[in-house]
Write a structure and sequence with these properties.
Layout (H helix, E strand, L loop, with lengths): L1 H14 L3 E12 L5 E15 L2 E4 L1 H4 L4 E5 L5 E10 L4 E6 L10 E2 L10 E6 L7 E16 L5 E7 L11 E4 L3 E9 L10 E5 H9 L8 E6 L2 H5 L7 E7 L4 H5 L6 E5 L2 E5 L3 E5 L2 E2 L4 H12 L6 E8 L2 E8 L2
Parallel strand pairs: 7-12
Antiparallel strand pairs: 1-2, 1-4, 2-3, 3-6, 4-5, 5-6, 8-9, 8-11, 9-10, 10-13, 11-12, 12-13, 14-15, 15-18, 16-17, 18-19, 18-20, 20-21
């Protein structure tokens, strides 16, 4: 048992410096007699993988107006999103500069992981940076969400403790290789209950490291079923825009985010913003094929290309046009 503990100490010391804290600022709306826009801080984790690149979760940075990355020695470096795939919840940041003593993590082959394999997570739960939790691969969860013929979303389930602030951080195997990027938990209490999920490293590498997952700067919700009727959407599904990041492609094209907070049927929404109905002729649907079409379309965009959006705004269908910055 002492040998195992020594081995764990050694591997943790080797990789700990590659784990970073991701701090963000984004717009939010406070309920009041008149809605008030405020700047809200956000917190997540990330993994330095070399060449100024940080892997993290898309939901941590997707609508952020400002992003800073804090290294283990306290150095804080501004960063921007260069690639993001929200349906897979992975994103890639680029640092403005790289600390001279930065330590890069190695991406492992997540296909080699089996149920029962020991793993560990390092991150910033509730802002307590570089906290370690240990567990096992509880299951490997496939998905019908596809990003083309060769890439399907895969989640690694773990019982290693994951809490708010861990999102975007690494799941390591016992060789100190990253085999997952923390995404979310299933919980009824709001805290960790033994069901944590991470996007497999192979999927993350394919989608945002080796490919260009176009960052839109949009945070929103796919509306379907009864929500289509509630929001009076003139088709089977629509994408409700919640927040828009400053200086993002979404802000340049003129999309409007939510302007007031509302509780509808027990769910919290930012309402009053646009509902996207189609992107350059690709209609928003609930089918998995729509995700693949959207990913393929965005991944092929280049600077100067024209993008056309059909949106529902104030009860009217309008068209927005813009060019890729």
């Amino acid at each position: 048992m002492q040998i195992d503990a020594q081995s764990m100490r050694d591997v943790v010391r080797k990789v700990d410096a590659s784990v970073v804290v991701v701090k963000t600022v984004e717009k939010n709306v406070l309920r009041a007699p008149q809605p008030i826009f405020v700047s809200s801080p956000g917190l997540g984790s990330g993994i330095f993988i070399g060449e100024g690149k940080i892997l993290t979760a898309a939901h941590v940075v997707q609508a952020a107006d400002k992003i800073e990355v804090e290294f283990v020695d306290g150095q804080v470096v501004p960063a921007k999103v260069v690639s993001s795939v929200p349906p897979a919840d992975v994103a890639l940041l680029k640092l403005d500069w790289v600390p001279y003593n930065a330590v890069a993590a190695k991406l492992g082959n997540s296909d080699n992981m089996q149920v029962g394999d020991e793993v560990f997570v390092i991150g910033a739960p509730y802002g307590i940076s570089h906290s370690l939790s240990v567990g096992h691969v509880s299951a490997r969860r496939g998905s019908n969400v596809s990003f083309g013929a060769a890439v399907n979303l895969e989640l690694i389930q773990t019982d290693a403790a994951i809490n708010r602030g861990n999102s975007g951080g690494p799941v390591f195997n016992m060789a100190g290789e990253v085999i997952g990027v923390v995404s979310h938990i299933f919980s009824q209490s709001g805290g960790f209950e033994g069901l944590g999920f991470a996007v497999s490293s192979n999927v993350a590498e394919k989608l945002v490291v080796n490919s260009k997952g176009f960052w839109t700067g949009i945070d929103g919700l796919l509306l379907r079923d009864e929500w289509v009727r509630i929001f009076n959407i003139p088709q089977r599904a629509g994408f409700l825009v919640q927040r828009i990041a400053d200086n993002s492609p979404a802000s340049h094209i003129g999309l409007i985010g939510g302007t007031q907070s509302a509780n509808i049927a027990g769910s919290e929404f930012l309402v009053g913003g646009d509902v996207i109905l189609a992107v350059s002729g690709i209609e928003v649907t609930t089918e998995s094929a729509c995700t693949a079409k959207m990913f393929d379309y965005f991944s092929k965009l280049s600077t100067g290309d024209t993008v056309t959006l059909k949106v529902l705004r104030g009860g009217q269908v309008v068209e927005l046009k813009g060019t890729v910055p």
